[in-house]
Amino acid sequence: MRVVPLNKLPNRPCSAPKLAPRWVLTIVLMVGGAVGLGAAPPYALSGYAPQLEQITVAETPMGPVSALDVLMFDALTDRQLEIIPFEVWMDLDSMRAEPYTWYIGQTVEELATTAELAGRAGSWQPAPDALRARSFGAAVAAWVDAKIKPLIKVEQIDIDRYYLANPELYIQRRTARVRYIFLKFPPDAPTAMVAGVRNDLDEIAIRIRQEELTFEEAARHYSDAPSAAEGGLLPRFYERTYFKDFEERVFLLDQPGQMTEVFTGPGGVYLIQLVESKPASNIPLEAVRENIREKLQIEHIRHYYQFEMEKIHERCFVRNHVAWFEGLNLDVPLASVGRVELSRPDFLRFYDNPLTPFFEVNWPLVTHNLAAWIEGEVIMQELAKEGITKHRWLTRARELAALHQKAQHVYAQSVPAQSYATPEIALETLKRNPDFVANLRSVNLIQFEIAPKGGRSVTQSEKRAARRLARVIDNNLAQGALITAPIQIDLAQWREELIQAVLARGSAPAAAVDSANPTALPDMSLNPQQPAVADPTDPTIVALENLNNAIKATLFPNVEVTALPIGWRSTVPGSGWDTPFLGVAPGQMSRPLTLGDVTRRYLVLGEQPLDVQPWLEKPLYLQVLAFRSVAHGLYQETLDRMLAEGRIQYKVPIAELSPRMRFALGGAGALPPGAFAAEGL
């Protein structure tokens, strides 16, 4: 960075710059316009930093690692821990139920391994300005703790008003447990067939009432539902879980053992028996008072932070030139705050690789990093005015940033140049890496998207309820189950049935399709080479239609759930499609991808080995992958030794990581020397 007088700021270059795509300008506005508000990591704005500092996650050779350390390091790398709610960190036992805790373990392992590798850097030290830029998150946390939290006072009347204004949050909805029998019929079944199935269930109901057999026995013998194995028993459920007619009939029953009449619903006919029910009740205010206090404090902190930042920006000279990133004159800064400027070389030193795997500008990353630099530099200048530049969190953040930079230096010095000197050599290097080859595959995907609805017609309380429901749906998807009415769909079983339907149709040789490698499943992506009109009898199309019909028949208040065929996608490491599918086998669900409130997961229908030969047409990309592959070997060797020696001891429940999950290409942010120069950057 350089400092210049305000009256000598360089003018915009005379030649017409190459503008960013129009949507980049939209992203700039979404993250805070020209000033770049809202780029700080969530932990910095939570107000929880002092508590997180007291939580020990693991003991490593670098000493105790706190939750705050883990989140600071995560902000330097993948920012994948942001999906874990802060209340989970506050209650360590609840981590056992958190489906993403393996992310914590992965980050702790990466931090410990990074510290171990950093010890090999010798006397080499990263530039102080790079450490400053990488500690902006901690600066925001320190500023919030020193300047914002003292302004926050949640009064008892605020808590009372919130409780009364959001009754749906604190009502224990009525619940029920039931057994049910379900006899299915085809979607296009004639009336006579439907009547016949209904008569069959009527006869079963009569036999139950005459005590010829119990409801449980009848469900085990006759029901077509997955719950037949449990005698038709469903887990306890809240109202608005299943379709309307099903629930209305359930909640009309008031005595255990009572049965409904036989009725027709989605996919078949139903008979229900009540096991137990509980009426709706209010959760007492005193039971949730502290929870509401913490929630309001976080909301107030964010609002005050935004308000204070806007006041600061009114008196600061701030510029953000992200829209001209590709064509900007090299002498013109990418951004500036007061007299401090961010040049292009500094930007490339401070932040992650700003290119996609195919060496195009990664606009979301560039936009976010520039906004983060502006926001962080503004806060650092404010801390300097207040004399808080030596806060312990800033010191710790710089230590972690130094470890990260030193490890990247060790990778650059340790990877032999001859291992990636030419594309052909790079390809041979990759082929010698068994982990890389194991992850070099193409996967056939179904995308599930969960999107809470917004708009003026949806109230704030309805939006909050929709977000909670979206999390419930996502947690079920993480376990391989899709919530539909009247029963959940086991997606692994749905996939197996699809494969059998493809086989039964004879659309491919039996050897080409099996449960482990269904290569004959069609490419369901929008491919211009495919026929313009799809065959409506295709088993895949039929299965997806049935899946979406089941979703539509389910009541999801203000939440839209869709299943969309994506087709085959390459998960070559570094492609952007690799991380969500590490360790995910056919029939399993990917890890989540989020954009705002929208969450996407992908069901893997099948996998195929990927031919690496075409990658010779992308020589620089192949050389970067080879460099990272060798770097990962160094990373994995160091990590394996530390684990074998028991040098990483967790203090919280962490999901065990499989070797395939660990293949995250250690030093993934590292690039071989000269990579940017090769692209003219």
Provide an overview of this structure.
With 681 residues, the chain is α+β, with helices and mostly antiparallel strands. The chain folds into four domains: 2-154 and 293-414, no CATH class; 174-279, Chitinase A, domain 3 (Roll); 417-431 and 617-678, no CATH class; 441-611, no CATH class. 44% of the residues lie in helices and 14% in strands. The strands form six sheets. Strands 1-12-11-10 form a four-stranded antiparallel beta sheet. A four-stranded antiparallel beta sheet has the order 6-5-8-7. Strands 16-13-18-17 form a four-stranded antiparallel beta sheet. Helix 6 (101-118) packs across helix 16, helix 6 (101-118) packs across helix 22 and helix 9 (156-165) crosses helix 13. It is globular, with a radius of gyration of 29 Å. The model is unreliable at 1-37, 508-533, 657-668 and 674-681 (pLDDT under 50).
Strand count: 19
Please compute the radius of gyration using only Cα atoms: 29 Å
Distance between the termini: 17 Å
Q: Domain count, please report it.
A: 4
How does the overall form come out from the CA principal axes?
A: globular
Structural class assignment: alpha+beta
The neighbouring-strand order within the major sheet is 1-12-11-10
Strand content: 5-15%
Query: What is the count of DSSP helices, taking H or I runs of 4+ residues?
Result: 24
Which whole number gives the mean pLDDT? 78
Could you give a short account of the major beta sheet? Answer: 4 strands, antiparallel
